[in-house]
Amino acid sequence: MKGFRAFSHKFASASLGLILAALLLALTAGSKPVEADPGPQALRMSCASNDFHRHVCAADTSGGVQMVHQKSEAKCIQNSTWGFDKNGIWVDRGCRAEFEVRMQVPAVVEHRDHDRDHDRDHDRDYGRDHDADREGRHEDEFRGWGDSYMVYCASDAMERVWCPADARFGVHLIRQRSQATCIEGQTWGYGKRGIWADRGCRADFRVTGDWKSRAAALIYCPSDYMQRNFCPIDTRDGVFIIRQRSESDCVFNRTWGYDRDRIWVDRGCRADFEIVDRRDREWREWSRDWNDDDRRGWDRDHGRDRGRDRDRDRDDQPDRDRDDHPPYLN
């Protein structure tokens, strides 16, 4: 009998302990945050020492860096000819390679005891207030042709090529297509004549500007069915491509160009174009202070009908500001 009482007492104590543990677990589960495993993500990028000097490619290296593909004949040896620090990835003595930059994804914290209606209201307000911020981040991502104001520029023959685009407000590289590295100031850049690419760089670039407010002034010209098409417009002062809309690349003097009083497109190129008019106030600053190289290059690439320009200069208002001169004559 005493043994039965002892067993009953132990059983009751164990049952009470299990009940208290279950209750405590239920209380803490409702308030304790659940953290998701951050898990690393990786971004692949190129960095090159083309001139056998040390170069730094800016990147967030807090998650670590790993070389995944050597492009150069010169050996890429970590801590000897390549490495990384808080400023980014550095390369030296001819090392050219692709690197994988690991990034830590912030932990996601979920509270299960939140009021759901409050969460929905907060999420809706947060999304509305941050639409502009999301759009700004996505501007530097390739999202397909026709969405962003992007153009293609390529140094196919390993020589410097100018692609006529309105670069007055800045240019950003969006997507590198070539195996040759595209480095701003070395193998690509921009100026008054547009965007330039050199030494095999081929890439897609975003042209900065308030194009939505200027959409009515842009000219859309398509090459439907892969046939050559002409869009009549006064082109005497020049034409810039602003946005490629087609999967077929729009390449100056190959699949698009202009002559006399029209723009032409061919082989599937579809794009928005901007007409230069030096009689307008906005082009006056652009028309001034051209150097000799830009002047000769513009004449070579854009010389369509110089005689007609001279005829236009013979107007009946000799005292009028000469905004319709070639840009380098102002």
Placed side by side, the strands forming the largest sheet appear as 2-7-4
Task: Specify the helix fraction band.
Answer: 10-25%
> In what range is the share of β-strand residues?
25-35%
- Detail the poorly predicted runs: 29-39, 105-116, 121-137, 305-330
Main pleated sheet: 3 strands, antiparallel
- Secondary structure class reads alpha+beta
Mean pLDDT: 75
Describe the fold and architecture:
The termini are far apart. A 3-stranded antiparallel beta sheet has the order 2-7-4, with no helix packed on it. It contains 5 helices and 20 strands. The protein is globular. By secondary structure, the chain is α+β, with helices and mostly antiparallel strands.
Topology, element by element:
Elements: H1 2-31, E1 34-35, E2 40-48, E3 55-58, E4 65-70, E5 82-85, E6 88-91, E7 96-104, E8 109-110, H2 116-129, H3 131-138, E9 150-154, E10 161-163, E11 171-176, E12 188-191, E13 194-197, E14 202-207, E15 219-222, E16 229-232, E17 239-244, E18 256-259, E19 262-265, E20 270-275, H4 292-302, H5 306-313
Antiparallel strand pairs: 1-8, 2-7, 3-6, 4-7, 5-6, 9-14, 10-13, 11-14, 12-13, 15-20, 16-19, 17-20, 18-19
